[in-house]
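Input record (one chain):
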Amino acid sequence: MAKVFLGFMGSGKSTIAERLDKNYVDMDVVITERLGMSIAKYFEEKGEASFRQIESQVLAELLSQDIVLSTGGGVVISEANRKLLAKNSPNIYLSADFESLYQRLSQDQENQRPLFLNQSKASLKRLYEQRLPLYEAVATQIIDVIGKKPEEIVEMLS
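The corresponding structure, as predicted from the sequence alone:
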C-alpha cells in the first residue's frame, strides 16, 4: 500500500514525501503528464467534474503501489477519492492552521499556485475550512507541522 500525504496547499506534502523517499510520486505531476496540460488549463477547458474523474482513476492506480505519494490539496473533495483513501493506510494528514499556511504560500516564490494567486484570502479560508474535516476523516495519522522542521517530521514517521 502507498504511504499517502494529505493536506492543504503549503502544508509540506511534497517536501516531506521527497525527504522520506527520493523516488516519491507527486500525484499532480502524474495527472499533468496524463492530461498533457496543466491542471489549471484542464479545469478551464473540461471542468472540475471531468478532472475529478481522472484524479480518481490516477489515485486508484497509485494506491495499489508500494510508494510514497504526495497528493493534491483537493484530492479529498471527491467522495470516490475519500472511499479509496479510507481503504488505504497510512494516510498522513499534515495539519496547519490557516494563517500559517497563508503566510507560507505568500512567501513561496518558487511554487506559485494558481488557486492561491486567483482567489482572495477569504475564499481560500472558506476552502480550507471545507476541506479540513475531509482530511481528518480519511487520515490515519495527523501531524501538526507548524514549528517543526521537515527533518523532525520525517523522524516522526520513521
